[in-house]
Write a structure and sequence with these properties.
445 residues, alpha+beta, Phosphatidylinositol 3-kinase Catalytic Subunit, Chain A, Domain 5, 12 helices, 31% helix, globular, HipA_Ser/Thr_kinase, HipA N-terminal domain protein, kinase
């Protein structure tokens, strides 16, 4: 009797076109593009870290694992809940994506060999009322009990990140649970609660992220559109996906290829922070030299880093920046996303981060790497700009733009605040921004 095969395989699809396959064997993991995909008019690599190879040679090992691992939540507790709910048999990337790979970030779908996404070019879904959306949000933070099966939870999707979230389809003005290959169009993010060993209070993270999105947009940086919504007692931030767009005739929804900077640089999600070996400002600025809009993308990325410092946005790691893949290997930066200010939780009280410990996710390089927000000064931004070929004059111009526009940004955004918006949250963020702009203006090289 022969040895039972331990090879497992998933085919990779992109908008109804077979792209390649991902398999796991006794020897490890392997990714190979299909020959027909290489000559397709829509052909493009899945990742900058996985370009087409001579002779269409396959990729093997950790670089394959890391690419697919980055499609999943990087929080182990969330992975365990997903594994229990969908009975995956484990939490490794292949096990999870075999069940959750029908609706990934970007354009790919992962399906068993015997299955084809036959209903890609139509929109199918079940309309959900407020009560069912509220229940879905409640279920997002709970694991399915053993033997329990809720047919309303048949939606199989994978959304990267460390926050509790789910996703739905918006169609003809109604929220729907998509069926078959119809993708989700909006992500629903729940409040973070108390986070980290200091138990920093982020129970207003929904309002915080909404406010930060308005601030970043007012500074002129493209960012995902989002709104605060309530479904019964459930508060959520509803974020419009920029990796989805309707077809020209509106009959189906196109998945847009993209990847985050960890995927693009071949980094594990465990190394999303620069201090852990993940991508930093210099590596991303170099990568953006190859963008179809290199000058604008590099300018926006550098300005975003300055804005993150002004906002004390401490979680701007490699997974929170992405590129969109265009045909024939071209690419450009996507809008930014997932911006939260730490100003409300920086302080000396309970559930607060001491000011001397608040760090950026990516270092500003002066004579050394500066992560601590308190330590970063104007001259460090100038030095960083020079080191990445952006130039001192360009950095000075961006710094002055931010200093001169901040009061107007705060005034404009203040007019958008709803009457029930937490005033202490807004005031903490606005006052922190002003304080940092004063430091930028007064501390010179």
């Amino acid at each position: 009797m022969g040895r039972r095969s331990t090879t497992k395989k998933l085919n990779v699809w992109m908008n109804g076109i077979p792209v390649g396959y991902w398999e796991t064997t006794r020897q490890g993991e392997r990714l190979r593009y299909f020959d027909d995909w290489l000559t397709d008019e829509q052909a493009r690599p899945l990742s900058l870290s996985l370009p087409f190879l001579p002779g269409n040679a396959p990729y093997k090992g950790q670089i394959v694992t890391d690419y697919f691992d980055n499609l999943l939540p990087d929080n182990d507790a969330i992975r365990r809940r997903l594994a229990m709910r969908h009975q995956t048999g484990g939490i490794d990337p292949f096990q999870l994506l075999a069940k959750l790979g029908r609706d990934c970030v970007g354009a790919i779908q992962l399906l068993p060999e015997e299955e084809t996404p036959s209903d890609v070019y139509e929109i199918r879904g079940e309309v959900l009322n407020t009560a069912r959306i509220a229940q879905r949000l409640r279920n997002t933070t709970s694991a399915q009990a053993l033997g329990q099966h809720d047919h309303d939870e048949d939606l199989r999707l994978s959304i990267a990140g460390a926050q509790e979230k789910t996703a739905l389809l918006r169609h003809k003005g109604q929220w729907c649970r998509p069926h078959g290959s119809t993708p989700t169009t909006h992500i629903f993010k729940l409040p973070l609660g108390l986070i980290g060993h200091m138990q920093a209070d982020m129970r207003t993270s929904v309002e915080n992220e909404w406010l930060c999105s308005k601030i970043v947009s007012a500074y002129g940086i493209p960012i995902t559109r989002c709104e605060i919504e309530h479904f019964e007692e459930q508060k959520t931030l509803v974020v419009e996906r920029f990796d989805r767009t309707p077809s020209s005739d509106g009959s189906w929804i196109i998945r847009l290829p993209q990847e985050d900077m960890c995927q693009a640089t071949g980094a594990s999600p465990l190394r999303k922070y620069q201090s852990d070996g993940g991508p930093g400002i210099a590596q991303i600025m170099e990568l953006l030299l190859g963008s179809d809009h290199a000058e604008q993308d590099r300018r926006n990325f550098f300005k975003t880093q300055l804005i993150f410092w002004v906002l004390a946005a401490t979680d701007g790691h490699g997974k929170n920046f992405s590129i969109a893949h265009l045909a024939r290997g071209r690419y450009r930066a996507t809008p930014i996303y997932d911006v939260l200010s730490a100003h409300p939780v920086i302080g000396k009280g309970k559930n607060q981060i001491p000011p001397q410990k608040a760090e950026l996710a990516m270092a500003v390089r002066g004579s050394t790497n500066y992560y601590l927000i308190e330590k970063i000064q104007r001259r460090h931004w100038i030095a960083q700009a020079q080191q990445v070929g952006f130039g001192a004059a360009a950095a000075e111009q961006l710094i002055e733009e931010i200093i001169e526009s901040t009061e107007a940004v705060i005034a404009d955004v203040s007019r958008l605040l709803p009457g029930n918006f937490p005033k202490d949250l807004a005031e903490a963020i606005f006052s922190g921004m002003k304080k940092h702009c004063i430091k930028l203006a007064t501390v010179r090289g």
